[in-house]
Amino acid sequence: MEREPIIHIENVHKWFGHVHALRGVNLDVYKGEVVVIIGPSGSGKSTLLRCINRLEEFDEGKIIVDGIPLDSAENINAVRTEVGMVFQQFNLFPHLTVLENICLAQRIVRKRKKEEAEAIAMELLRKVGIPEKAHNYPAQLSGGQQQRVAIARALAMNPKIMLFDEPTSALDPEMIQEVLDVMLNLAREGMTMVVVSHEIGFARAAAHRAILMDEGQIIEEAPPDILFNNPRHERTRAFLSKVLH
Amino acid sequence: MGLQSRRSFYFRFLGAYRDPWWLLVFAVLLILTALIVIQPNPFLRILLFVRDGIQVTIYVTLVSFALVLLLGLVVGLIRLSKLTILRGIATIYVEVIRGIPALVQLIFWYFAFPSLVQDIGRSLGWQALMDYRPNPVAMAILGLTICYAAYMSEVYRAGIQSIPRGQMEAARSLGMSYFQAMRYVILPQAVRVILPPVGNEFITLLKDSSLTSVVAVPELTRRGREFMAASFIPLQTWLMVSLLYLVMTLLATRVVAWIEYKTRLEK
Fold it and tell me: Which of A59, A58, A49, A4 is nearest to A29 (CA)?
């Protein structure tokens, strides 16, 4: 491809003590692309995702996000304002209302005025379908609602890339779809997304590329239909047989 | 909302007969008043004599505590940081201070530290240092602050560590700096966790301010000793002083409980 990738990951290694968590990962993600990463637990998929906005430091290799190399403190903060992240445990701020959760970083990082930040927050809450919860506290919301607020909170910073770290794994089954629907809409709007998830249905519907990681390496990458229906590698087949029922 | 909170206030107020705290305060105030009214000599005389001591006790306690809150936070944050050298210094500070009795530290700051300054002045030939005389109240506040900040830093540290890691990660992933995340996300939650132990520290500090009586601070305990020395009525003197401390600590306990009630997380 001729285009510049918006995320460029080159030969990234990461050790946790003696554990070699990432073993030379190479990956390019292009603007508007939706990439889903699957793999057994401990395969390094979350670690890789967390390296992209440097919540995790890596020991070797390089990562360039939107032309900014992740090497200095200023660059890391610059990248973080471009990259939104959604966590498995939502990580909403429990001492703030939903509206304040979405406005806080807008105010102190983006330096937006209160009225402007609140207008943006309300618009995003309408987009994720829960404007009526603006003045509630996170503890008063269901898991699915909390995760939708977390997505709105990340979107309020106008990120160019959204990272999702197992966004539905902590949810009760009946709440998974409402979160996936928000993510699907986001994908259709052309947001660049890297999603660590085992939601095969979402991957089939939204992803341009699916990636299987195991033992800190990318084993196989292909369009989701091909990866899920005709995997080339034995390890992919073994993993899918456990995930697909 | 307003009506409901007012009702619950009256309910708690009228329900006082069931609350041992109110009972205790009424009892203490009753005894104090009774003593003063029935036997103004010596009890009113004692109260008037130690009155300025109460003010000094409150002043020393409040000023020290404000400084303890600040210094303790700084030390606690340093001990949680990645700044290796500073962290080492902070750890040594906490361990050394916690291993030495508060009374010994106060004596050190008032007697040993000034003689050190004077010796340095003599060897350098600086008259200003040679003539250095410590101010008792200032040295007491210094000593109490340095001593209690070591304990307080541990309270802060435990409180900050009790906040899940994901809170810091979420704040950082939104582009906040470490200090912005601390200021707006971590500390507001940690404050609610540490309020009970901070309240305890305050009450302990209030009581330990009596230690400063040995370093010439004219606070309540020292004024009590002065009255006893002049009047030779130890029983009444120390009964009065004890009751006055009890009133202050009981009120402080209630203020802490009230702040806890006000800052709890809305459900």
Answer: A4
